[in-house]
Design a protein that fits this description.
Blueprint lengths: L13 H13 L2 H8 L3 H15 L4 E4 L2 E4 L1 H27 L5 E7 L7 H12 L3 E7 L2 H9 L5 E6 L16 E15 L19 E4 L2 H13 L5 E5 L3 H9 L5 E4 H7 L5 E18 L7 H14 L10
Parallel strand pairs: 3-4, 3-5, 7-8
Antiparallel strand pairs: 1-2, 5-10, 6-9, 6-10
Keywords: DNA-binding, Transcription, Transcription regulation
Organism: Microterricola pindariensis
InterPro entries: ArsR-like_HTH (IPR011991), LysR_HTH_N (IPR000847), LysR_subst-bd (IPR005119), WH-like_DNA-bd_sf (IPR036388), WH_DNA-bd_sf (IPR036390)
Length: 320
């Protein structure tokens, strides 16, 4: 039998669900407040009002942190689908009223910033000028977190085969993950390198070279790529700057492996050659969103445009 105070309809709102979901994700009120862009006292006051409405506690103190009660877990379980459904309803109502407008918050990895993202923004501005797209640059784990915490509607991400830190596994649980295309990973060599004239290069032939590594996940891929070829790379330099990688290779400081988008962004300067690996190595580009995101017209239009822009970036056409 329900308590007397629950004998009426519960007055829940989407903001309450966002707050509870953020606490579930981050484990503390302070971290949840930071993720949502509110002060800690504001979140605490909102929780008190929520608990007064539902007639039971949503959180409980555990040491220096908090955890959700059974009631809080119920709210968290429904948070993402409910918020997505509300956003979808708002979008459809806007379409029905003839208001051709909308907002999409996009997050994407660095090598997409000077390549896919500008083309997307330009194409959307031409075809759907009423849709406002905001953009932040973030590595895949942070981009997925932004979608989960409702700080982004869509995230462009990437994954490598056998990636132990793939952000599309546990951290993307409950989200929608769609593969857009595959992107070839290319070896970057000095023009005077003995293998520069080869059509393809066996990675094992570079076991004695110094390597230039990139971001942590790219570095992890390099280690796995070389491990599959029977050696541990000697990493001499590390930088996330694609132009710096090209300059270092041109100066003869080492060799590198870069995705095609990074090469497209940086360009291939004099003194550098780009070659595919003999085993043809690829990473996959994904788009991540909430399960109901596609029902929001502005987001659906953005997803359609992303699909159009990445069509043709397949194993045969993605070459430097």
């Amino acid at each position: 039998m329900r308590p007397p105070e629950l004998e009426h309809d519960l007055d829940l709102d989407s903001h309450s669900l966002r707050v509870v979901n953020a606490i579930a994700e981050h484990g503390s009120i302070t971290a949840a407040a930071e993720a949502l862009g509110y002060s800690q006292p504001a979140i605490s006051q909102h929780l008190k009002r929520l608990e007064a409405r539902i007639g039971m506690p949503a959180i409980e103190r555990v040491g220096r942190g908090v955890r959700l009660t059974e009631a809080g877990q119920v709210l968290a379980r429904y948070a993402l689908p409910v918020i997505s459904a509300l956003d979808a309803a708002a979008g459809e109502l806007a379409e029905l009223s003839g208001l051709r407008s909308g907002r999409v918050r996009l997050a994407a990895f660095p090598s997409a910033s000077p390549t896919i993202v500008p083309r997307l923004l330009a194409a959307m501005n031409e075809r759907h000028p009423g849709i406002n797209i905001s953009y932040i640059e973030a590595e895949p784990p942070e981009a997925v977190a932004a979608v989960r915490e409702s700080r982004a509607d869509l995230a462009l991400t990437f994954s490598y085969p056998g990636d132990r830190g793939d952000p599309h596994t546990e951290s993307a649980h409950g989200l929608s993950v769609r593969a857009l295309s595959r992107e070839e990973m290319m070896l970057v060599l000095p023009a005077g390198h003995p293998l520069a004239a080869s059509g393809t290069v066996d990675v094992s032939q570079l076991s004695g070279e110094a390597w230039i590594a990139g971001c942590p996940r790219c570095r992890g891929h390099l280690l796995e790529l070389c491990d599959d070829s029977g050696f541990t790379p000697r990493i001499g330099y590390e930088t996330d700057n694609f132009l710096a990688v090209m300059s270092m290779v041109a100066a003869g400081l080492g060799v590198a492996v870069l995705p095609t988008l990074a090469i497209e962004s940086a360009g291939v300067p004099a003194g550098v050659v780009v070659r595919p690996t003999s085993k043809r190595n690829f990473r996959t580009i994904h788009v991540v969103g909430t399960p109901g995101a596609r029902q929001v017209p502005a987001i659906a239009a953005t997803l359609q445009m992303l699909a159009e822009l990445t069509t043709g970036r397949n194993p045969e056409s993605v070459r430097a």
